[in-house]
Design a protein that fits this description.
The protein is mainly α. It has five domains: 47 residues, no CATH class; 79 residues, no CATH class; 80 residues, no CATH class; 121 residues, no CATH class; 99 residues, no CATH class. The protein has 25 helices and three strands. It has a three-stranded mixed beta sheet. α5 packs across α7, α17 packs parallel to α18 and α23 packs antiparallel against α24. The chain is globular. It holds the Pfam family DUF5691. InterPro entries: DUF5691.
Length: 465
């Protein structure tokens, strides 16, 4: 409102330092002010501001949003959703949305704006909110630029690839790649020369879905791209294609620097990085904590197909470099190829995982092996660090094991971190664990918070059933 800031300044600084200029106020306030002072003017201005404004005219009403066919869950479930949106047990919001979607329930439309606000800075929630919004997603996206991620719901129209915004184009390419990898590759080929380096790198990463030898020619050409991020992205994808020329080149380099003789792995570290090595994504700049030559060798091993190496190697002695270099490289390769055989061997050998975690190897194994592996690994690895990096919900067997341990742990503070992780990771069929029926006392301990969260989540599923 005109003149309001001047009144505030005069009140803060004093009328001697900042004289009041009543003439800056709206005419209606001046008429009623008469001989009044600063406080009178402030009172009139406050009422004036609260009184509203003249209605706008000749406006076109907003088009109505499309309707939804999904039924709504019971009122008690909707009240729980509202409570979470209001800040109570908000961490379970994604679980509520996922459970409701799986059971065919819709979301009351009045809660969609709050859900969109919640997801705007939380990428992991966006698919859930898009599903919850249903046919109303694009309608909402047009109302608020901060909700533009909802445009991803509209991804089938081929025109989005040529005329859509950045999000719509990525969504279209991702969906097309999942349905018809060859068609997605051809669409990308057509626009590739005209895209920016950042866009090329983003689109290239989407080719990870449905990757095959059909993509090799395109990715080999991308190794010569002028943008570093594009070249490295192409190298990462080529390393994942069985039988690729890239894999053959890395295999040749491996055997140039590694000899297996009389049960020993003898390493001759590279002395330089050639132009062809750089083209294949070998980074010449070593990170802190590792020598240059060891870093170059680690990358060679990490990008060599595991099929040319023996899973027995992690148990063999190493000469010419620290064993941890090879162990970290094999970990990278095992994670890339999702090799259960190598994951088991590396975990059994208690191998160094470099920049990875043991949990990344553990998650490659079948879920029914997790309990046995965790039982062995917790002797050398912090249990919370290990299970806290596993995908949720946990298998029922692992969840029961962890809750059994917590039930027997008393209230010692050292268990608080594990309890916090377990409270969100336990699957629905273990939420009725006996620990939820034990007395927790009046004190606000980790045990009480764990039990309250498990019960809250159990009731969530019961209300949506």
């Amino acid at each position: 409102m005109k003149g309001w800031d001047g009144l505030v300044s005069s009140a803060l600084l004093g009328t001697d330092r900042r004289p009041v200029h009543f003439e800056e106020l709206p005419e209606h306030i001046q008429e009623r002010l008469g001989d009044g002072d600063l406080l009178d003017a402030a009172a009139l201005a406050t009422v004036y501001k609260r009184a509203g404004r003249t209605p706008l005219r000749d406006l076109e009403p907003m088009p109505a949003a499309a309707g939804e066919d999904r039924p709504l869950p019971r009122p008690v479930a909707i009240r729980r959703l509202a409570a979470m949106l209001g800040g109570f047990q908000t961490a379970a919001l994604g679980e509520w949305l996922r459970a409701a979607d799986e059971r065919g329930w819709g979301v009351p439309p009045e809660h969609l704006p709050a859900l969109a606000d919640h997801a705007r800075n939380r990428a992991e929630f966006r698919p859930l909110v898009i599903a919850a919004a249903g046919r109303r997603a694009t309608w909402l996206a047009d109302l608020n630029p901060e909700w533009k991620f909802l445009h991803a719901a509209e991804s089938d129209d081929p025109k989005l690839w040529s005329h859509g915004n950045a999000l719509q184009r990525r969504t279209w390419l991702r969906k097309t790649r999942a349905q018809d990898p060859a068609a997605a590759l051809e669409a990308l080929r057509e626009v590739w020369p005209t895209e920016s380096a950042a866009t090329r790198a983003e689109f290239l990463a989407l080719l990870a879905e449905g990757l095959s030898l059909t993509d090799e020619e395109f990715l080999e050409a991308a190794l010569d791209d002028r943008a570093k991020d594009v070249r490295r992205g192409a190298a990462r994808l080529l390393a994942r294609i069985p039988g690729s020329r890239y894999g053959d080149r890395m295999t040749g380099r491996l055997w140039s620097h590694l000899v297996v003789s009389q049960g020993v792995l003898a390493v001759d570290l590279p002395k330089r990085v050639s132009a062809s090595m750089e083209r294949d994504g070998i980074d010449s700049q070593n990170p802190e904590g590792i020598g240059k030559r060891a870093w170059w060798f680690l990358q060679i091993v990490a990008n060599t197909p595991l099929s040319v190496m023996d899973p027995a190697w992690p148990a063999m002695p190493v000469e010419g470099c620290a064993p941890e270099i090879l162990q970290a490289a094999w970990t990278e390769a095992a994670v890339r190829e999702r090799s259960r055989t190598w994951a088991r061997e590396l975990l059994t050998a208690n191998a160094s995982t470099g920049g990875r975690s043991a949990a990344e190897l553990l998650r490659i194994l079948p879920a029914d092996e997790w309990v046995r592996a965790v039982t062995a690994l917790k002797e050398t690895i912090d249990l919370t660090e290990l299970v806290g990096r596993l995908p949720v919900p946990w298998p029922a067997s692992l969840a029961s094991m962890i809750l059994d341990q917590l039930a027997a742990a008393g209230t010692a503070r050292g268990w608080a971190r594990l309890a916090s992780v377990a409270a969100r990771a336990v699957p629905a069929d273990v939420l009725d664990h006996p620990i939820t029926r034990e007395p927790t006392g009046e004190e606000d301990t980790w045990r009480r918070r764990l039990v309250e969260t498990l019960i809250f989540r159990r009731e969530l599923y019961e209300e949506l059933s």
